[in-house]
Each structure stands twice: as C-alpha cells, then as structure tokens.
Design goal:
four-stranded antiparallel β-sheet, alpha+beta, six-stranded antiparallel β-sheet, single chain, disordered N terminus
Amino acid sequence: MKSQLIGFLLCFWIPFSLALYFHSGEREEKCIIEDIPSDTLVMGNYKVQRWDTHKQDFLESAPGLGMFVTVTSPSAEVLLSKLYGPQGTFSFTSDLSGEHIICLQSNSTRFVAFAGSKLVSRIHLDIRVGEHFLDESVVQAKDKVNEVNIRLEHIIEQIHHVSKEQNYEREREEKFRKTSEETNSNILWWAIVQTLILISVGIWQIKSLRDFFISKKLV
C-alpha cells in the first residue's frame, strides 16, 4: 500500500525543468537567465553535436570539443566556472533568490560552416531546478522497508522544495505589490503637481492679460 502511495505521489510530482537546444558559433557565448529561490539545487545536462558537411547533419557526438560553463548569481558572484567535455553534467546551489545567469561557451574553433553563415554546433541543454535525483542502484540494493524509507525521504525533500518555491513566489508577489503601490502613489502625486502647475499658469495668464488690458485702457 505504501509503495502504491509513493508511486502515486511521484507520478504527480513534476519538478521545474527546462529543456532546449540552440546553435552556437565558434567561441560564441550563449546565456540563459533562471529565476531561482535561495538554497536551491540546480542541475544541468548538456550535449554538443557537430555539423558534418558530408552527411549534412549534426553528429551525435563532438569529440575534441569542450564546453566552458559559467554561473553568475544576482549579486554578480561567480558560483561556477569550469571546463567540461562535449557532454556532461554541472550543478550548483543558489545562495540568493533572484535571476541567475547560466552561460555556455565552446573552447574550440573546429566548427564548420553552417548554412553559409557562422561556424556552429548544436547544444542540447536540460536544466532541472530543485530536483534531487534518486539513486536507483542504492534503492534496489536495499530491502523493501528501506526502499520505502528512501523513497519517502526523497519525497520529503521534494515537498520542501515545493514549499520553498511557494515562499519565494509569495516574496516576489509582495515585492511586486509594493512596487505597484509606490508607482500608483507617484502617479497620483505627479498628477496633483501637474494640476497645481496648470492652475498656477492659468492664474498667471489671467493676471497678465488683465494687467495688459488695464495698461492699454481697454477695460
């Protein structure tokens, strides 16, 4: 019964994941921005494919190519700066909440012309935020009771991440609300100032016209 319950919960647990691919030129740096809560584990998997002029297609592997991965925090602190191979996994833990910049750059110029323009390769990138991977080999080596305990601990970790994510969203919502209220307040005061300026200009114009008419003895 417990195993069925765990399986049911795992089916409905979907951690945040971003999977994409993009083309990159020789030594060209490509960056993405991820809004991440504090104290959150982020794991990324990537694979580089090289364009083959004979097959007119991207090869499944790109031996000899390396990928330089750099991660910068919202405070401009470098959390990760490391050179990997043509395929690999990187991870880091966020210290602050906010937008983290993840950049990938090739360390090689041995790309070939693609579509008559830049020298490019194709990079597949899969980023998972807040996911703690479960080692199935460890689970299988344990008996059923320990397996249930391990999976429960895994689910508890995921629940903690969901709670942390919700708290972060509430903080962002509160910050946005305060910013909106300050903006509305500034707009109100600016409207009042504009009204006072218009009234002052109107009074001055009326007084100037009145003095002009009096000086010309028109009134």
